[in-house]
Specification:
- The protein has one domain: 3-Layer(aba) Sandwich (Rossmann fold).
- 34% of the residues lie in helices and 21% in strands.
- It has six helices and seven strands, in the order βαβααβαβββαβα.
- Strand 1, helix 1 and strand 2 form a beta-alpha-beta unit.
- It is globular and about 50 Å long.
- It has a five-stranded parallel sheet, with helices on both faces. Strands 4-5 form a two-stranded antiparallel ribbon.
- By secondary structure, the protein is an alpha/beta fold.
Length: 202
Amino acid sequence: MQRIENKILVIGASPRKNGNSDLLMKAASEGIASQQDVPCETVYLRDYQYQPCLGCEQCRKDKICTRLNDGMTLLYPKVEAARGLLLASPVHHYNVTSWMKAFIDRLYCYYDFKDTRPRAWSSRLAGQGRKGAVIGVCEQVAEKDMGFVIEAMQLPMEAWGYEIVSTQRVYGVFGRGEVRKQQQALDDGYTLGRKLALAVRE
């Protein structure tokens, strides 16, 4: 396990470069940067080649995924070292993108299980003061059309041991860069990032 530091890892799951999710991540990163002693690193999952979890359970023994040697081996140390984590995803059919879903599933390797029924479990990322935030981006304007995007990111993060300090739901944007017309959404993204940075500093 990497030594944890007071920095924030921002992870985006949009397949579209410079789209609305990327712009909101940029606004959040600017909010993080307003706290000069909290470094920030941005990762776009589309730039990494990795497979979904195979369910082989080998990580229960090895304490990390050793079955697959792919892009996730580059991301594990980043996740471990950052006290703060921000996940952002557009809506794909009422849920996160396949990139985000595979990323979340591959963090299964941080769970420890006991041989009980139902199995008792704990997370090796827990108990370290980790803080998190999530951003969901939706083309439609109805709340129901956001689907499960926020919960699909927030619940796993809480299970890993993160305290979620802020969430943001953005509606009515699809065309590349349309969120620029929603200054309030960009301002809210900035505020989310600043709030996350302040929480990491506590």
